[in-house]
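Sync notes, pocket subgroup
Present: LS, DG
LS reminded everyone that the earlier model was apo-only. Rerun requested with fe (iii) ion included. Inputs:
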Amino acid sequence: MADILIRNAEIVTMNSSEDIITGDIRIKGSLIAEIGSGLTPQAGETVIDATNRTVIPGFIQTHIHLCQTLFRGKGDDLELMDWLRKRIWPLEAAHDEESLYYSAMLGIGELISSGTTTIVDMETVHHTDFAFQAIAASGIRALSGKVMMDQKGGDVPAALQEDTASSLQESVDLLEKWNGYGGGRIQYAFSPRFVISCTEPLLTEVRDLSARYGVKVHTHASENLGEIEIVQAMTGMRNIVYLDHLGLANERLILAHCIWLDAEERRILRERGVHVSHCPGSNLKLASGIADTPGMLHEHVSLSLGADGAPCNNNLDMFNEMRLAAIIQKPQHGPTTMDARSVFRMATIGGAKAVGMESSIGSIEVGKKADLALLNLRNFHTFPSYDVDPISRIVYSATRADVETTIIDGEIVMERGLMKTMDKEI
Ligand code: GUN
Ligand code: FE
């Protein structure tokens, strides 16, 4: 892998002062080695002339289902529980090794070509090893795990229902194979689907295993009013209260959606350091609701962004999520609410905090991983008028078409729409 020198770029650092500078970035191995101006190329370096280009930290999406990429358009115009029962569960049950591999690779292609460099991903019950193989070959940074569904009934197809013991054992086997792969580029995340699909013994064992191995737990919660009613009937508690009661609410937990919360649940999220993955595109399309992100930010709940699965949203593009996260709040809360910088923070450093990697990803700083996207913001739809904050231009005007190059772990994984490492041996 050649070292890289990016010259003469506008650099949106997202360091603690959120500096935006013009200069050069030297990448050695997987790390940012130097940031400066007038850096001279060294022997063997790949030089990227970034004149009139903008370099940003790669986006970190904290809720993705690569296994659902092939289902795009198959479950349109349904709400959550019907969408799962009628479309998504039968389709996940029908996956084989090959279809899962290509579903994952197709999703990763979309993600890295739109500037996403890290994902928190939830797979299906079976064949998850093949999704990990796609992740390994593509070069994307990922926390992923097989979905866990050991609760009987609830219209889940028989093919997706598993025993508690085998669900746990298969998860641990995958963890032992993949956690730490590629110098830590891949991590395992236990992925109980949601309270409805899991038994209490499974959830408490996941709690203990995540502590023992020091890995994340990734699940859905409080997305839909019907879901909350079922959880209440099953447990006698509200969703987040139940997760806390089981000891799962802690800084290792990444919770997708969190739309319908009461004050006590928000207090639990804040006090326990739980990370919320806000998915505005999915929340709108599945008619789930609008999460109170201004309220959560005000209360210092950890917030990041995710596109969810392709059929939740028809799109895995972080530009879309950032724009939606900003504009859906404005009619109710006013135009300065969820400003461009707030949502850009959620898409970068906020995601890094959620995955426990704020010292190594989420901003452009010497010593951090070289996970970057290079944008051309001089296309017709983004061309600047004078003195416009580039972050504002990125959030409100940029699209995936503006991403020219994506670098992960110091490696160019995508250049002008072409995935570089798709066929690499693993
Ligand atoms: N809740 C449980 N499973 C899912 C899923 O696959 N997608 C979404 N959006 N919500 C869920
Ligand atoms: Fe989801």
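DG: The radius of gyration is 21 Å.
LS: The CA atoms of residues 54 and 422 lie 26 Å apart.
Action: DG to write up.
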